[in-house]
Recover the amino acids of this structure.
């Protein structure tokens, strides 16, 4: 599994040295590489913002996960396999034509926000601070870090597959 700090390199290295033609190269019915990066950046940004908003709250109790939540978490966190056909939540949909520099900055800033929370909140808040994930239920900061590593690795494969070598 990749390290959290390596997410920007993982997502952006296939596009390094390539122009906007590669950034916006869209296979039929799919997101272009820029949209994939924007989706990952937006997901990171949203969960970091929500986690930060709860830092001052007193210790929380995790809601018991449902059986499907436990199964999905076991599969994704354990193997990195995401079920095909799952739609992204509305709040994590990418822009139609995400501006490259702004999207790259958003990705790097969101990763930096999580790394700062990791430095300042762990280990003290490792088990009593939660943000709900739409599929897995309540996740701790360490679990969010792990999820985003798996999520980025999943989408980095898409970026690599969609960046044509001719660009």
């Amino acid at each position: 599994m990749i390290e959290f700090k390596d997410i920007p390199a993982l997502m952006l290295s296939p596009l390094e040295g390539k122009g906007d033609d590669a950034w916006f190269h869209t296979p039929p019915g799919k997101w272009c590489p820029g949209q994939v990066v924007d989706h990952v950046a937006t997901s990171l940004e949203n969960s970091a913002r929500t986690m930060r908003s709860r830092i001052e709250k007193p210790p929380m109790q995790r809601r018991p996960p449902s059986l499907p939540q436990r199964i999905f978490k076991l599969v994704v966190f354990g193997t990195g396999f995401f079920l095909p056909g799952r739609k992204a939540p509305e709040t994590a949909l990418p822009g139609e034509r995400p501006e490259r520099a702004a999207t790259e900055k958003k990705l790097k800033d969101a990763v930096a926000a999580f790394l700062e929370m990791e430095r300042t909140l762990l280990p003290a808040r490792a088990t009593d601070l939660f943000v709900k994930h739409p599929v897995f239920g309540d996740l701790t900061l360490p679990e969010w870090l792990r999820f985003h590593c798996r999520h980025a690795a999943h989408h980095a494969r898409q970026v690599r597959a969609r960046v044509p070598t001719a660009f």
In short: The mean pLDDT is 95. The radius of gyration is 16 Å.
